[in-house]
């Protein structure tokens, strides 16, 4: 389990990935602060966590609003003893399915701009508290090493987020704050066939629980020397 008394912020906590990660952090004993654009699904995730014996709080948040992100981080830190874990699963309105030569430039750049904005806005809010305490972990789904055609703005978005994570790791490392990103090929929806891309080395894609378990490992003290690095969950689709 995570050391007792940890505080985790999960942005995009009503989505499939964010909710799974939030539940996993809560199972490990962390108090989880969920944010998203609409409250009802956030409240549902928080209720499920509390019903399972965990601690969860839900708040509506525009992740592009720096002042709002700062206020939320301040409140989460005050409710515990600072902020220990940050996970950003906000949606980016990705554009896929056509070559880069076809879509309008605005369609390609829109998810890049949104992803970088929300990540920098919310990560900075949490990191300020981590720096004060001399430790913490920032986790972001990212990537960018794939060689798959027709990913459009999605691939550029993941690459941009990887760059953001590397620079944050360089700047925050001296303060004891680690940064890592999770590369996943996408998880199957409930009832969907869980077959990996034929180019992958393993037969199945990661379930949401697999992504959540990787996030828990990265947040755990046993990964205390891991930073500026990627957790590859692609089953060999993107080999090292």
UniProtKB/TrEMBL annotation:
It holds the Pfam family adh_short_C2. InterPro entries: NAD(P)-bd_dom_sf (IPR036291), SDR_fam (IPR002347). The keyword Oxidoreductase applies. Keywords: Oxidoreductase. The keyword Transferase does not apply. Belongs to the short-chain dehydrogenases/reductases (SDR) family. PANTHER family: 5-KETO-D-GLUCONATE 5-REDUCTASE, ALCOHOL DEHYDROGENASE, PUTATIVE (AFU_ORTHOLOGUE AFUA_3G03445)-RELATED. This is SDR family oxidoreductase. The lineage of its organism: Bacteria, Bacillati, Actinomycetota, Actinomycetes, Kitasatosporales.
